[in-house]
Design brief:
This protein has 277 residues and is an alpha+beta fold. The protein folds into two domains: 106 residues, no CATH class; 143 residues, no CATH class. It has nine helices and six strands; from the N terminus they run αββββαββααααααα. Strands 3-2-1-5-6-4 form a six-stranded mixed beta sheet, sandwiched between helices. Strand 2 and strand 3 form a beta hairpin. Helix 4 packs antiparallel against helix 5, helix 4 crosses helix 6 and helix 6 crosses helix 7. The relative contact order is 0.08.
Length: 277
């Protein structure tokens, strides 16, 4: 065992707490190491895990939360691309087992099932409220002229239904920006996929190329939205109306094929047979 591992092990017995509601012990965030029982510190140093520790896999928030509150631990995270994934929690085997026995006993009680049902109902109600709020924010951003009020309502409902499901990973689920900005971004993203040829484009694998394409398509989408806001007549083959008509007929979004002429970028950004999404 390394000296660092020994010091963590020694602190474990001092840090254990008996209250399940205790504040969490500060996490030491690490990355997976070179072998099953090693981790990589932020400094890049490889450290062995204490022999009386085990890895608690992710997936049970209650179990993880209580172990984190009871004792010193190593929080294993791994970045894959732009996403950060949890690989589990290293902590004392004794604490992990003790917490599991407590949770199993609690979950076997009838009151626990009732508590879960109430929590599920509360989350469903919160989700329903958020969908309505988000739809209203989308409609506020669209702000179509009265002659297109019905289209505005239809579009706001379609975007809210697509963007708000829990776990969807869309901009509507983030808490980092105000809801009005989320609504604006969701509209532009929806239009990019539903009213432009973006999904079928071959974009050069050059730094900034995809961002440039998205910026160009966003400009064209905003131009199209402005026509509806001003109340001007729209073209007969408007890609926005076509997309909404197909969605109203129950055509899956992945099968909605917009007209290529709307949103087609300049040639320098469009073609590269070796390019990807």
């Amino acid at each position: 065992m390394t000296r660092k591992a020994a010091s963590i092990s020694a602190k474990t017995s001092m840090s254990e707490k008996s209250s399940t509601g205790a504040k969490e012990v500060p996490s030491i965030v690490v990355q997976p190491g070179q072998s099953n029982r090693t981790v990589r510190l932020a400094s890049g140093e490889i450290m062995e895990v204490p022999p009386d520790w085990e890895l608690l896999p992710p997936g049970d928030p209650m179990w993880t939360r209580r172990v984190k509150a009871r004792t010193d631990h190593l929080l294993v995270q791994e970045k894959v691309g732009r996403k950060l994934f949890s690989r589990g929690l290293w902590a004392s085997s004794e604490v992990i087992s003790s917490v599991k026995r407590e949770i199993d006993a609690e979950r076997s009680e009838a009151s626990y099932s009732a508590k879960l049902e109430k929590a599920a109902e509360r989350r469903a109600e919160q989700q329903s409220d958020y969908v309505l709020q988000f739809e209203a924010e989308v409609a506020r951003f669209l702000k179509f002229a009265p002659r297109y009020a019905r289209l505005e309502q239809q579009m706001a409902a379609a975007i809210a239904a697509h963007a708000t499901p829990v776990g969807s990973g869309t901009v509507a689920r983030t808490q980092r920006i105000p809801v009005e900005k989320r609504a604006e971004s969701a509209v532009i993203a929806w239009m990019r996929h539903q009213t432009t040829a973006y999904d079928n484009m071959k974009i050069a694998r050059q730094r900034g190329a995809r961002r440039e394409v998205r910026r160009e398509l966003a400009g064209q989408s905003r131009f199209l939205l402005d026509r509806y806001r001003s109340g001007k007549p729209v073209m007969e083959d408007c890609p926005l109306q076509e997309a909404l008509e197909k969605l109203s007929r129950g055509v899956p979004p992945s099968q909605v094929q917009p007209r290529r002429k709307h949103g087609e970028p300049a040639p320098k950004n469009r073609v590269n047979e070796q390019g990807g999404r």
